[in-house]
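Predict both folds.
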Amino acid sequence: MVTAAHRTASAPDAARTFPKGFLWGSATASYQVEGAAAEDGRTPSIWDTYARTPGRVRNGDTGDVATDHYHRRSEDVALMAELGLGAYRFSLAWPRIQPTGRGPAVQKGLDFYRRLVDELLEKGIQPVATLYHWDLPQELEDAGGWPERATAERFAEYAALAADALGDRVRTWTTLNEPWCSAFLGYGSGVHAPGRTDPVAALRAAHHLNLAHGLAVQALRERVRADAQVSVTLNIHHVRPLTGSEGDADAARRIDALANRVFTGPMLNGAYPEDLLKDTAELTDWSFVQDGDLRQAHQPLDFLGVNYYTPTVVSETDGSGAHTSDGHGNSSHSPWPGADRVAFHQPPGDTTAMGWAVDPTGLYDLLRRLSADFPRLPLVITENGAAFDDYADPEGQVNDPARIAYVRGHLAAVHQAILDGADVRGYFLWSLLDNFEWAHGYSKRFGAVYVDYPTGTRIPKASARWYSEVARTGVLPGA
């Protein structure tokens, strides 16, 4: 459970000591780690279909085996305990629990998660369950996918099945992970599953994800234990204008609406921002928003999950639409409906293997903004981390000083934000394991634990040992 952290006064010898009760964890996602893609009743998700489509995923990689977490669950839980993690954020695979997206649950699928939760609790590790991390059952996509209202209704039914099975033991729930990616990369630019490229479908998907979130919150509240906490995780973009010009400021406003307020508006304020509706009016009249939808989407939350990796820098342009520098993959189709006159720019400085700028100040600024915009809503960093070109040396060790520096810098930013008044209650390192990195396949390694893919062998990297000490002590060492 994510509880209010007890703040202590800053002092020279405790300047980087995190508050008592701060939650330390790591995270994964079902399709990226589980494997067992056709076992115990699981049917294809949109990512199974997408990964099998030639040219979609680097090297033709799929998540059929991934890191084989489905069969190596106990080994992985023991590894988490060895590292001293206080929490593990994982996602449930919808097609493993409800293969067609309709009807009763498959008990063998639920049993996997029951055993996972039991083993976590036995080790003193808090399970944090995410209902949706992008693996929509393919049958629901065949029926129209997230652009259709029925998908939101099916999601609420699935949430109820998961809560009935796990709600007595799981005390922290997340409805959706990064719905921006599901809507705009999946249906706008096509660089994520299901690979569609329709700007109106992307906006419709965003709305039905908002509705699905609200319906799922209600389904969870009716079934989980009274002390459970319910949240959503958003990849809030920290958007910066390239210059101080009015045009660049308006470009930043426009992207902030499409990236952030399209979700925070309905979920946290009960309304879409007027500027978003105006910016996209040439594409749609938003008539797919029905009476009562925004009331359904706007449900009380116990905290907001925040995923952050790098800032977003934009400027006004002449309409050429240089969206390919937005860090979200290459496509001739933009994930930014109604933003053709916005260009994206690579921030200066060091980059990760993803080409993303390393800039902890963006995380600090983002936390301060969210605290000002939603002062009564606690925050949890549900993903933060970096991919680097890791390898095992001849002695079988994996040294990754760049990742340690990345995490140290971002934890320092979190610590400073807390000192300056942000109610941040936890941090989850992405990712526990090297894994299937979506359209990049197995070419990008985010894990604190190295995975030798041919054998499945796990090797904790130097960053895992470093993070373990931080998690055990709550103290961030200096550089």
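Second protein follows, with its predicted structure tokens after the sequence.
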Amino acid sequence: MTNIDHLRGGQPLNTARTVNHTKTATTNTPSTTTIEPQHDAVSLSSQGKAVGQIHQQLAAETSFDAAKVAEIKQAIANGSYTIDADKLANNIIKFEDELNDL
């Protein structure tokens, strides 16, 4: 497979734009004028901006209930934490069903 750099022979690529103008019909002396490069611009719709704001809000919030985590840690530490096997199994099945819907 041919490398694209090989096609231009390692020479730098000239990106300046030039325009050729003729001064008169009898003398075809071209003059070169450099045109400023164009810049791309992006604008977001109001919906796009709203999604960005929601994303920023969600990123700033914690993704878990710190009070509940502290409560569970305390229950584990003092030995009072119990696991409901039926509830755990039902939640695992529910989670698997949600994954199948994706």
